[in-house]
């Protein structure tokens, strides 16, 4: 295709104000490719925090106007140009971003973006944007399953707390990795219903009266918290035999007490590193039909409706929004 000299991208200019504006066409540097973006999905906490004027991580410094195209990072598209030395992807390949390097650079909330070729995976052309754009999130969730796998013994009864996008993917990963029972907790009925449809054996509200705390009777073997909320983490800790691993961003302290020290001692695991093996595992499961990303997409919208999209996420009326940069 003939590459134009300008494009459009989203920029959050101030808390609560985003513009879809003209910008110069980016040029791929050495080892990079230029991607024509076909679809990019929200990462709800990133969008709600940055658009709301709050840092995503404790100690993170925010400056506005925010980096152009950010915080968009869950994207797929087509390679249309290559920088010097970039040989891993050919012109016309469909690719998906599998990791966000965290470096200050243009994000994927745009019509085009330049990205290092090592941070992209080639994907089948038959996959629609909704079916593959969120692969980066799937990679992140698989990392938590890698941590549990390192403990050995396979997955027994696995508890999952928080059925946002990550939790709904965790339900599917748990089934794909052979969990004997998947128990999913969330206060929102619609999300419990979706988790059930995606393979959870049991879906429950996090109700301490209905599931009394005990690490010896009616316990979870392992659990993953996908909220980052201490009350949610401690709910799992009080009902899990072996390990609770944390996926959600932790912003407050969690209490580990004597009830977790014995019988046997509970393992509390933080997060590990993003890695290509996790991304390739997620892609393989998608191709095998064991992992579905499209059910997480509640709406597809143009970027001119970005503020509306974030409000839908904030009110929990959407799990994820897919943006079409060409609508």
The description of the largest β-sheet is:
7 strands, mixed
Question: H/E element string?
Answer: EEEHEEEEHHEHEHEEHEHEHEHE
Number of strands: 15
Which CATH architecture of the largest domain is right? Alpha-Beta Complex
Query: What is the CATH C-level name of the largest domain?
Result: Alpha Beta
Helix content: 25-40%
Task: Give the count of helical stretches.
Answer: 9
Radius of gyration: 20 Å
Average predicted local confidence, pLDDT: 96
User: Could you tell me the strand content as a percent range?
Assistant: 25-35%
- Look at the helices and sheets and give the structural class: alpha/beta
CATH superfamily of the largest domain: Medium-chain alcohol dehydrogenases, catalytic domain
Shape: globular
- Tally of individual domains: 2
